[in-house]
Amino acid sequence: MRRGLMEWDPQELPVDVLDARIARLRGVMKSAGLDAFIVYTNLVRPSAVTHLTGFTPYWSEGLLLVPMTGRLVFATALSNRVADWIRSTNPVSEVTSTPRPGTLLGERLAKDTAVKRVGLLELDAMPSELADHLAAAAPAVEWIDGSALFATLRRGVDAVEQAMLARADAIAVAALDRVKEEAVSDAGALAGLVEKNARLAGAEEAYIAVAPDLAADRRFNRISKPTPLSDRFAVRGSVSYKGSWVRRTRTFAADDATRRANVWFDDLVRKIDAERSFAVQFATGVSALPGATIESWMAESCVGSYPLSVVASSRLPTSDTPIAGSFYVLTAELLLDGRRWIGSAPLIVGRPSL
Amino acid sequence: MVIADDRKARLIEAMAEAGLDVLLVYGNAWQGDYLRYATDFGILEGQALAFVRNDGHVTLYLDSPIEVDRAQLDCPGVEAIHAPDLIAEVDGALDRLRNQRIGAAPQRLLPRRIAARARDLNLSDQTSFVDRLLMGKMESEIAATRRAAKVADEGYRVFMNAARPGRADYELIAETEAFFRANGVDDNFQIIGVGGVEVRGMTPPGGKRLKRGDMVTTELTPCVDGYYAQICRTLVVGEPSPEQRAAHALYRESMEAGIAVVRDGIVAADIARAENDVFRKHGLGEYTTSEYTRVRGHGMGLFADTKPHLLENVTTRIDAGMTLIVHPNTYHPAVGYLVLGDAVVVTKDGCEVLTGTPRELFSVPA
What is the ipTM of this complex? Predict the structure, then answer.
């Protein structure tokens, strides 16, 4: 449940930027022969609606209708009493509260006889009740999965999104910096400290996970109970600023191997290019770090409704090539001189920094 | 782990009674209660589907690799599988369960592609079956709710101590969250209202800074071992005005009237009616309608806002062992949105109030 800062600042996210994103979607809709497009949102799958409207639900769910022309319609099961709040954070849509968002939007579509083919982001994953209501209210409509089409829109990051990602990253970095400044020996208290600082700095959400003893276990968990920290632990901060998500992971240990790995990873992230696959770049990169072997790696990006989803990894059979101008979060796990090191950081391919 | 074992034994027994071979549950960080009941996993990122077989074997499919790590740590008795293409993977698994009697919950949130196979696979909607398990708590579940209610009291004190003029609403929540993370609370549902007569409800924080005379409303809902307990309180920055005091007294009378009727065997509407009658008596019946308020309380459990909703048209029977929040939260025309709510557990003859924080209109220095 979102409970951090949620507000729309027209200076930060101008309406004309949202209009440009909507126009871009309409352009690809037209090329694909779609007459309208529908996007689902809840707090786990908010990012496509956030990209188009600025709005993220703190709770409940909703559907956004993007017609070929005219104002967008956001229909939500959130109660009518919070409709004004939704409007205050969603400047580009008509907002309607209804217990049956699918029916409402389906009826809108059915009224327009020109609407024949409608794209749906992540069609297979649409909650069945909403999908049934849409289909029942608009029986003549042909529903098309629009996931691949939408992903093309998310190639490349506009200046406004870049600034918000940079703000999210600055919040994550500053919150993790507090780990070094405070002598905390308990993982639950540490997670609270990092989360507090992220939220005080304006994070909309902060998921803090800790691997309290990297020598024993590489896995991270959210921890809220007394758990001692070893002399080699790692903290992962997944932080959202107004719907823009980054992940930062840091290994904390007082040894030279950790310092060398940190330097190596910063350099790798800065140099990721659009010429070679992620797998090749990780393999080439680790060869430059004496004594290191790479245990696993992962590249995440925002291509649909999830804030971050894995687009390439050492666990997947294929490895894509990074796209110039696109946003990723890279995670690497190394064994360096027999010691485990884990790090993650965001980047935009071809740009020196966020 | 004791609670998870209790739940699993109860679920398997109920599945046998219902003639189910397999139960398919869906969950995400918003609606995670069905999944938590069946697997004990508290999901944060991505989505999950799980099969519970009648022999007790649980297979949990997760589309996020970082959640697979968490599931392995938190739920060692569950088979956690990374399924990058979650729906295709589960669709394939359903093929292997042909000829089994499969139930699903919550049906409305099942991915469309999975739900579309209902007829083909004899997949039945068992949402109400799981709802009954979610509503009626076992002693171990009630004990977890008691712990959550206690930490909600402590959390409210942290919230109140953080409230002072000039601070932003989200800063109060940040302080509370830090306390929760260090004290066994994995999750928290919280919304807030700051201001006066212009405030018509609570929302996530929007950066509003507290000033003298503001009412600060919050409902704070920490989660301990998966179980949420809620507290609703209102504070004033500076001395409360006579109007604020009078309004609060009315809400207290209403909440206490609601709590007074809670017992095994009534229906949800009885509680809502008792609360609303107090508003009607004071000529404020209009403010008990959906124009101004959502519900007059609700169930608590593995979901912060679970069934039954306390409304005058809800006829769900209230049984001993249910945990509820009774809150006459609504807009008051003289002072704005005001909240007050206590958590209770229903007993045979009445209820046990879990909330320990005084039912006061609090005041913090201006």
Answer: 0.97
